[in-house]
Amino acid sequence: MLKVKLIKSRIAVKPGLVKTLDSLGLRKIRQEKTHEDTPVIRGMIYKVRHLVEVTES
């Protein structure tokens, strides 16, 4: 399982990245969501890696 936390603002981020954050369930700063470790989730995290913090749980 991966714990994903939004650490930077979504303001002034390209619309495609905002949709990726929505798919991950991250809407507010410091909000955390837990996801299974799948290639799809890893790809989404890689796309927004400069906005999130990831820990294994």
UniProtKB/TrEMBL annotation:
Any GO BP: translation
Domain Large ribosomal subunit protein uL30-like ferredoxin-like fold: 2-52
Keywords (A to Z) from UniProt: Ribonucleoprotein, Ribosomal protein
GO terms for MF: structural constituent of ribosome
One GO CC term, this protein: large ribosomal subunit
Pfam families in UniProt: Ribosomal_L30
Family: Belongs to the universal ribosomal protein uL30 family.
Subunit architecture: Part of the 50S ribosomal subunit.
Protein name, as recorded: 50S ribosomal protein L30
The species this protein was found in: Pseudodesulfovibrio alkaliphilus
